Amino acid sequence: MSEEQFYSVSSSPHVHSGASIHGIMRDVVIAMIPAFIAAVIFFGLDAVRLTVVCVASCVIFEYLSRRIMKRNQTISDLSAVITGMLLAYNLPPSFPTWMAIVGSFVAIVIAKQLFGGLGYNPFNPALAGRLFLFLSFAFAMSGNWTDWNYINADNIAAITGATPLGMLQESTGSISFLSSNSNILNLFLGRVNGCIGEVSSLALILGGIYLLWRKVITWHIPVAYIGTVAVFATILYVIDPTGNASPLFHLFSGGLMLGAIFMATDMVTSPTDKSGMLVFGIGCGLLTMIIRKWGSYPEGVSFSIFIMNAATPLLNRVCKPKMFGLKKGKA
Amino acid sequence: MNILKAKFKIHGGVHPKYRKELARNEETKRLPLPKILRISTTQHLGAPSKPVVKKGDYVKKYQLLAEAAGFISAPVHSPAAGTIKDIVAGTGATGTPISEIILETNTTSDEDLVGVFPTNDWNTLSPETILNRVREAGVVGAGGAGFPTYVKLSPPPGKEIQTLIINGAECEPYLTADYRLMMEHPKCLVEGIQIICKVLNVQDAHIAIEDNKPEAIELLSKYIKDNGIENIKIATLPTFYPQGAEKQQIFAVTGKQVPSGGLPSEVGVLVENTGTTVAIYNAVVKDLPFIERTTTVSGYGIENPSNVIAPLGTPYQDLIDFCGGAKDGVKKIISGGPMMGFAQATTETTTTKTTSGLLLLTAKEISQYESAPCISCGRCIAACPMNLMPAELSQFCEAEDFESAAANRVMDCMECGCCAFSCPAHRPLVQHFRTAKAFLRAQPKK
After folding, report:
1. Burial B310-334 (b: 16+ CB within 10 A, else e)
2. Residue A279 lies in a domain
3. Nearest to A323 among B260, B326, B378 (CB)
4. Of the candidates A51, A102, B361, B397, which lies 20 to 30 Å from B345 by C-alpha distance?
5. Which residue has the higher pLDDT, A172 or B304?
6. pLDDT score of A158 more than 60
7. Taking CB atoms and an 8 Å limit, are A15 and B367 in contact across chains?
C-alpha cells in the first residue's frame, strides 16, 4: 500500500441496498409497457405519435429548464420519461401534437421544475399537465370518436361520440345495457373509446402487479382507491340498478385503473406512511365517485387525485407510524 | 428442548449482503505482540480514564494504566510489559480527540506480569466480590457502545431484572468475532452467563442467535444440555439487520418494548454482548483485566480475512499486516461493521475494547453516491426498526429545524443505518440525524 493512499471517510452506513431513483423509475416505465402495447393495438399510430411527442418534449423541457436554472441534470433519472408517458396515456388519440407539447411544458416546467424538480413538486406533473389541457382545450380533450364499440340494449352497435363514462353522463333513460357482460369485457380489455393509455384495465393491472412484485409501490393506495370506488358503486347499484352503472363498469371504465395504479401512487405526491396512504386512497375513491355521480364532468379521477395531492402534506403530518417504545396516547 | 424461536417480529430492518463467509470459518488467531501499543483512555462510554502512569515508567502486564474517572467510566490496564514512551493527544476510531498512552512493549519478557488470583469455584464468591472484579478488570460492553459493565450489572434499586439476554446475534455484515467466540469458548460463555445470573439473581437467561449461525446454535444447545443447565435457553432469531440492536432484541425475545428514552432495566431485562460475557468470565474466574479482544479483520480488500485476538492499542496497520496485507483497490477502512462502523482516514488508529471489526472494503462493496432530494418513497419508514419517519426527520435536519426533529423523536434514532441503506435517493440520513443529535445534546436541558 502506498503512503499516499487516501481512504474515503463518511458517515455510516457504508453499504447500500443498491436501490436508486433511476431503478425505481425504470421499473415504472417497464410497468407501463403493457398499456402502451394496448394503446397501439386499439389506437394505432396515434398512440405512438402522442407517446413519442410527450416523452420527447418532457425530456427536452426538463433538460432545458435544469440548464436555464443552472442545476444539475436529472434527465437520466427517467422521471421525465414517466411524466411524458403518463401525460400521453391521458390524451385521446385524436389529440393535436402541438397541444400535447403545451401539456408537456405545463407538466415539466410549471408543475415540476419551478417547484424545485423531482421530490419538491406538490402535484403529480402529468396530472397537472392533463388538467391544464382538460380545462384549456376541452373540446380536443373530449375526443373525436369515429367508432363506438358499445352494444346497446337492442344489440345495435355504433352509437358514436362518447366514451363509456360520457355515455353514462349523458344518458337519460335506463343505462343497464352499459353493464352487460359483453360491454364489461370490452371495458376490461380496452376495446372502448377513451384516452390512449387508460382504456385497457387488463394491461394496467398487469403493470400494477409488476410494480407490486418489484416493491416499487405498496398495495395500500391502489387497493384503498379501487376498493372505495367498488364499495361506493355497489351501494349506488343496489339502491338503483337502472339509474346507476354496475360496480364492474365503474372499476374498468375511465381512468380509474391508470389513476389508481400509476398516478395516485406517485411517491412524491402521496403520503409516505401506510396509514396516510390508506386515507389518501379512500379520499381519491370517494371524490372520484362523487364527481362521476353528481359532478358536471363525466370523469373524476384526475380531479380527485389532484385534490388529494394537495392534502398529502397534511396527511403526512397526521398519519405517522407508532414509534417503537412509545405508549399509546403520548406523542 | 432448550432452543426457542423468537416470538415477536420487529418492524423494519434490512437484508444487507452479509459476507460472513469471508471469515466465519477462520479459527481465532493471536496477533504477535506489537512493538508499540497506543492505548486510548477512551475505550468506553463515559468519562475518559485518568492515567496513573507517566512517561518513562516501566509497567508490567495487567498493571493499571488509567483509573476510572467517575461512576460511568472504566479503568484501562496494560496489555503487556514495557515502557511508557509518552502520553499524547490522538484521534480515536470515531474521530473524536482522545489521549493515548504509548507503550513500547518489552517483547523479551512478555511474562513480566502483575500477579493474578484465579478462582477455582467462582460460586463461592459473593455478588459484591464478583461485581468488584468486573469493575476493576475494566470490563465494558464489547458490542460497540462500550457501556461500563459494572454499571449495567448494578441496576438502580427497585428495578429487578428478570430476564438476561446474551446478544449473539452479530447482525452486522462481515463480523464473525462473536460467532468464533461462541464456537470456540462455549464454556467461558456459559459460565459468564451463570456469573451474571448470580450477581443479578436472575433465573431466566437466553442466548439470542440469528438463524444464520446454525452451528453455534447447535453447539451451545448441546453444551447446555450436556451440562444439565436448565436456566439458559437459546433464542433463535430470524436473520436480518438490526436483530442485535438492544431494544429490538428485547422485543423479539420477550415482546417487551423498552420505553422511549428508557433503559432495558425498566422492563426487567438486561442484555449483554457475548464478548462482554466472556470478559466477565475472565475477570471473575481468571482475575484477568480486559486487555485484549477478538476483532474480525475482513472485507474484499484484505489478503487473508481472519479473526484475531489483539491487545488493546494495536495499530490497525499491524492487524492488516498480520492478515497478509491490503489488496489493491481498498477504498474504505472501517472500524466496526459496515452498517454502523466508523470510516478511518488512516491505519494508525488503534484497537479498543469495542473494536469488533476492521474492514478493508473495495469499491464494489461500498456505496458512494451523490444524494438527491427525497422522493417520499417511504422505504426508510418501512425499514426503520424504531418506527420513525426518517424522510421527514432528515428534511427537518436539512432545514436545521432541530426542534421539530426533536419533537419527531430524532433522539430515539439509534443510527442503525437501515434508512440510508434503503434510500434510493442516497440521502445521508444517518449523518443528518447524528448532526441533529449532537446539536440537541449540546443544548442546555430545559
Report:
1. bbbbbbbbbbbbbbeebeeebbbbb
2. yes
3. B260
4. B397
5. B304
6. no
7. yes
